[in-house]
Amino acid sequence: MAEGRPLLKQKDLMVISYSCSAGTKPTWILSLLLILVAETQVVHGVSPTGFLNIDCGLTNRSTYNDILTNLTYVSDREYVEGGKSYNIMAQYMADATNEQEKTLRCFPEGQRNCYTIPSTSGKKYLIRATFTYGNYDGLNSSENGSLFLFGLHIGVNFWTTVNLTNWGSPDTVWKEVITVASDTNISVCLINLGSGTPFISTLDLRKLDDAMFLFLNPSVSISYFIRLRFGEVDDFITRYPKDPFDRFWEAAHRYKFPWRNMTTNKEVRRLPGNDNFQVPTAILQKASTIDSNYSEFNVSVRVSNNIDYRSLELLPIFHFAEIGDNNPNRSFDIYDDENLLFDNYRPQPFRVESTYNSRRFLRKKGANFTLRKKASSELPPLINAFEVYSLVRMDNLTTSSDDVNYMKEVKKYYSLARNWNGDPCSPREYSWKGLACNYANGNKNPSIIRVDLSSSGLTGVLHTSFMKMPSLENLDLSHNNLTGPIPDYQLNSLRVLLEGNPICSKVKDRYCGNKKNRTAIVLIAVIVPVVFLLLLVLMCLWRLCWKGKSEEQEDYSIYEEETPLHIDIRRFTYAELKLITNNFQSIIGKGGFGTVYHGILENNDEVAVKVLVETSVAESKDFLPEVQTLSKVHHKNLVALVGYCQNKKCLALVYDFMPRGNLQQLLRGGYDSILNWEERLHIALDAAQGLEYLHESCTPSIVHRDVKTPNILLDKNLVAKISDFGLSRAFNAAHTHISTVAAGTLGYLDPEYHATFQLTVKTDVYSFGIVLLEIVTGQPPVFMDPQTVHLPNWVRQKIARGSIHDVVDKKLLDQYDATHLQTVIDLAMNCLENASIDRPSMIEVVSVLKRETIDNFNPSKEECHGCRNSKAVPVDDLWSFNNKLRWHLLSVWIYRWGIRNEPHFWAS
Ligand SMILES: *[C@@H]1O[C@H](CO)[C@@H](O)[C@H](O)[C@H]1NC(C)=O
Ligand SMILES: *[C@@H]1O[C@H](CO)[C@@H](O)[C@H](O)[C@H]1NC(C)=O
Ligand SMILES: *[C@@H]1O[C@H](CO)[C@@H](O)[C@H](O)[C@H]1NC(C)=O
Ligand SMILES: *[C@@H]1O[C@H](CO)[C@@H](O)[C@H](O)[C@H]1NC(C)=O
Ligand SMILES: *[C@@H]1O[C@H](CO)[C@@H](O)[C@H](O)[C@H]1NC(C)=O
Ligand SMILES: *[C@@H]1O[C@H](CO)[C@@H](O)[C@H](O)[C@H]1NC(C)=O
Ligand SMILES: *[C@@H]1O[C@H](CO)[C@@H](O)[C@H](O)[C@H]1NC(C)=O
Ligand SMILES: *[C@@H]1O[C@H](CO)[C@@H](O)[C@H](O)[C@H]1NC(C)=O
After folding, report:
1. Taking the CA atoms of the chain, what radius of gyration do you get in angstroms?
2. Ligand nearest to the CA of 261
3. For 146-187, how does the pLDDT look when each residue is reduced to its tens digit (9 = 90+)?
4. 882-897 per-position pLDDT tens digit
5. pLDDT of residue 561
6. How would DSSP label each residue in 801-815?
């Protein structure tokens, strides 16, 4: 290999260059030579579940174990129709990177040819295809100077182009896409673009963890661009089994001065719930940095000429972990060209953070990132791993699934060998020959309106699938060899042409191009089967009813009854709840009111289903009026009620699912899930705004009665939403209503309410004061120190004894803005006044917090990206400003997405 021919050459894609610069930049650029050899570690065993390894064109055996990975490769016969298998030219055999590259399947016929690989709907998959031309056809296509390229589709959507023009014959290109399966199979299609015959060498399918790549959905996939690991690495490619998902991590050999290797044996962990990338620890234990005389280095991503960059939208992802001992002083800025992307970034000791922004794909030919040491930092920047993906939009609609299934039955029954593969109607230019589709249904899937199978050598009977296709209008089966009866297809408006089939010899009717003689024969042929069918249907129905009663299959519909009230949100049946919660399998919380389950709606929205317990069902007279009230309450900081269920069998509320759990968990979560100061202030502001809305914008006001950290939930973007209105009642006659219903939780109880049982909005203000203290201190409302102590008293004592800084959560590691601390503590203490009249209203609380959050991130101080030029923020822009801020925070903190299935999200 020293002679330098890359075996696996993935760089259809780009050239990566690095440069470092000292204060007075002596710059140099190293272009990355890609010499790649597959991982040599061997694991004894069969392929992990969720792996499918296809060696395309394999003919002399049906399966084998790969020597390098010991993954079991299978022949592609089951997964594709058509095409021809070839071996690469003998002269390249010996050098082939691995066994799979020795054979290939090419597709000289047809514009589109598809592999159909099994999948589970809703699961995420990494699909990798490799291409080694190896001059298999002797045409020297990749080296003779002419254009040699073809396209790839994932399902009905364009994925990428494979451009082998001016490529070495033995070189290998690979492409990867990460996608969400929308059906029980995924098709990978090769598209002939008129510049050479498409072919493929390997197709790998790897099922990913559900918690990975949470920003993907059925209409957004990503195509791999590059994936690098840094530090001292032996293997050119790190893959399975070191990476359990068999991603290819290329070694970025940054070895020459001023690059420095970093290595640790200590475990590098990730936050629980930070499962978006699951970068293997072995990779994170190594990093590259630069000599301390230098201050910055560049990571440039350039698209090579072989790729059409015009439509590219790039998503860069950095993985950082501080692996130097003794928590060294290292912080740096990350620039994308001259734009500050991340300010004052400080890698976390032995914990990975992945910084990216899935909402901002970069639209350009390449990207040039600079990691620049902060003046205050002792050490220069480091980098552990780096990935770039490009966006693949999955916007094209597939043919309606009924039509697809019926056409597949037809194809199978008549053994049609007509390059009918992939989706029948979509994309339009590759639709199946002989079909006409209706694409004009707006947002609905295209449907098949005409099928022309005339003179196609069909034998057998007229297949009933045609009759079932809901949109089919014209069916031409003339001049085939169809026999048997003509079923009744007058039920729909289907026009059929059967002329020239034996089927017409017995029955002369209009379908056979002979309108003269619609005789009794037709009647018999039609009516007899109809009557027979009717009888059959009746019998089946009767049997079903009879059986339904005796078997455990309960008919839940009998429990459903009319609701007397008009409620705008969705009413679920018990059967529906059972379905969306997958038979109440995943419990995400338990509380006084009942159990909360995780559920997924038909549109894939996640929900939390709160099933109220039996006893509360009995006392549920208030339930529907309560639901009616709640269904009218909408605010961005209140957990949205999606629907409810009420009948003899169930009493339940269905809410939006909040993937980040509750505030209590986040605050107490240990060093693994530290909310920074800005995030804390934002959460406080969010919660305050939710309460302000309940108090001020609802008539009559709604008193929450049980404000506490477990009732403040966080969505995936860390936006706080108030939950659990279980104790709330529409609150009558402003602020004076006397209630005898016990409310609240120990530690949060308003002392005045305790004494007088006067429940007012100020009761919530008191509880919010406790929440605010918890946010600052990270302490629970009541704890042992060494005796039982109430949080406000503890804070007062600490402040009296020394400095206010002693109360701040130690986990913040002194990274907070001291000038604002005083204001926030003052605000909390103000909320905790004994006399409710002395407490501020939530309006005042919100306005103080707003001031704090904005001051805190005043652009002139913090250089908040995206708002650097605006010093004074007009009030109207407040929200959009906050959004920007969130964007800024998000881009750094985004890794916290996706805590799932943790208990007590909904503790009441
Ligand atoms: C691969 O795994 C199989 C199945 O466990 C085992 O029998 C075989 O010895 C392994 N082969 C190699 C080369 O490791
Ligand atoms: C099958 O073919 C491959 C290359 O095409 C070769 O390496 C392998 O030894 C062959 N196996 C058998 C069993 O003939
Ligand atoms: C293939 O094309 C290259 C470049 O044009 C040429 O150098 C080489 O000799 C050709 N090989 C064959 C076998 O035609
Ligand atoms: C969708 O289909 C059209 C043709 O019907 C095609 O031109 C277009 O590229 C497709 N879009 C995507 C995102 O694949
Ligand atoms: C980093 O590791 C590589 C590979 O072992 C080695 O060649 C290189 O000299 C190391 N660099 C430094 C600065 O130690
Ligand atoms: C394919 O690659 C060749 C050679 O780099 C380049 O000239 C051509 O523009 C590329 N074509 C496309 C469609 O990317
Ligand atoms: C990247 O940006 C840095 C500074 O912004 C510049 O010095 C360097 O030349 C750029 N590199 C490339 C490859 O454009
Ligand atoms: C039509 O089918 C019958 C049997 O189904 C067969 O005997 C006959 O040869 C076929 N005729 C043609 C023209 O294919």
Report:
1. 33
2. 5
3. 999 999 999 999 999 999 999 889 989 899 999 999 999 999
4. 222 222 222 222 111 1
5. 54
6. HS-GGGGS-GGGTT-
Above 60 in pLDDT, residue 194?
yes
Ligand nearest to the CA of 289: 5
Pocket-forming residues, ligand 5, beta carbon under 6 Å: 232, 255, 260-261
Report pLDDT for 798. 83
- The alpha carbon of 262 and the centre of ligand 5 are apart by a number of angstroms equal to 10
Q: Which atom of ligand 7 is nearest to the CA of 337?
A: 5
Q: 579 vs 76, which has greater pLDDT?
A: 76
Closest ligand 7 atom to 300 CA: 13
> Contact, 73 vs 66, CB < 8 A?
yes
pLDDT band per the 50, 70, 90 thresholds, residue 500: confident
| DSSP codes, 384-412 | SEEEEEEEEE--SPPPPHHHHHHHHHHHH
Indicate the CATH number of 663-861 among 1.10.510.10, 1.20.140.160, 2.40.30.20, 2.60.120.260. 1.10.510.10
Domain 401-513 sits in CATH at 3.80.10.10
pLDDT of 538 reads 63
Annotated ligand binding at 884? The verdict is: no
Pocket test for ligand 4, best of 161, 219, 311, 396 (most atoms within 8 A of CB): 396
d(CA 538, CA 519): 29
Task: Give the pairing type, strands 474-476 and 495-497.
Answer: parallel
Tell me the pLDDT of the chain averaged across its residues. Answer: 78
CATH superfamily for 43-208 is Galactose-binding domain-like (2.60.120.260)
Cα(9)–Cα(32) distance, integer angstroms? 12
Q: Which of the residues are catalytic?
A: 706
The protein residue with its alpha carbon nearest to ligand 6, atom 8, reads 306
- 562: number of CA atoms within 13 Å, CB side? 3
